[in-house]
Amino acid sequence: MANVTQQMAKATEYSAVNLLKDAGADTERWSRTPDEATIKRTIEAIEARNVRVIPVDTAEDALRTVVDLLPEGAEVMNGYSTTLIEIGYDRMLKENPKGWRDYHAAITAEDDEKKRHALRRKSVAADYFLSGVQAIAESGEVVACDKTGSRTGAWPHAAARLILVSGTNKIVPTVDDALRRCREYALPLENQRAKRAYGTGSYIGKYVILENEVAEGRITLVLIRELLGY
User: Fold this and answer.
1) Other C-beta atoms lying within 10 Å of the C-beta of residue 109
2) How far apart are the first and last CA of the chain?
3) Three-class SS of residue 112?
4) Quick check: 19 and 95 in contact, CB under 8 A?
5) What is the number of other CB atoms lying within 10 angstroms of the CB of residue 71?
6) Tens digits of per-residue pLDDT, 133-161?
7) Residue 78 pLDDT > 90, yes or no?
């Protein structure tokens, strides 16, 4: 198997550290590592909502965990996530050590616009969908926001398995704080990334809040004790 440690990327062109100056986001308020008591309490609250949590210490540990969670030959798709890039998942996916059927690669390779859009719609129902998150409430709700919904459409029901990856810096006291974190921290940074990457800004068009999950074992959150993503 590939050397997972070598694949781990950490800070990238679009990491928060490289966007903060122009975004003007408040890291002191919205991107701090909580103490262990808060992390433990939050994990218990999330798991009470039928979401499995795997706490890990480092980005390297997170990448190993994600690779272990994806079976040989599995059908996989991921939404754009700075956190996934920072742990090295994008490079690991290109190497594809376990023969995954990568929806993203199929979409990118499709030249026909109608077929490409059809693949995008199907991809939210992949066997395994991977995503970052924008905020986690200490009360256990996990929150995502997106402009079009392409990164969040799989969350409520479509994907057979949902694997979420997040740094503990996204933990905030309440679900109201989680929504504020989306608006006051994640959005300004994503707006700057979109301007640099696509030449146009961003906005929040969709929110998803994981309040409770019905299907046993469907959702796993890999929670990393590092400052990752935004």
Assistant:
1) 10
2) 30
3) coil
4) no
5) 14
6) 999 999 999 999 999 988 899 999 999 99
7) yes
Q: Measure the CA dihedral 141/50/167/101, to 10°.
A: -120
Q: Which two tokens stand for residue 86?
A: 């920072």
DSSP letters spanning 13-49: TTSGGGTHHHH---HHHHS-PPPHHHHHHHHHHHHTT
Q: Which one-letter amino acid corresponds to residue 113?
A: E
In this structure, what token pair is assigned to residue 122? 């199907």
CA distance 106 to 135: 30
CA–CA dist 116, 206 (Å, integer)? 22
Mean pLDDT over each residue of the chain, to the nearest integer: 93
- Signed CA dihedral, 211, 54, 84, 217: sign only: negative
Report the largest interatomic distance among the alpha carbons of the chain, rounded to a whole angstrom: 52
**Lowest model confidence (mean pLDDT) among 66-70, 89-93, 102-106:** 102-106
- Model-level pTM greater than 0.85? yes
For 27-75, the pLDDT digits (tens) are 999 999 999 999 999 999 999 999 999 999 999 999 999 999 999 999 9
Query: Are residues 160 and 109 in contact, defined by beta-carbon separation less than 8 angstroms?
Result: no
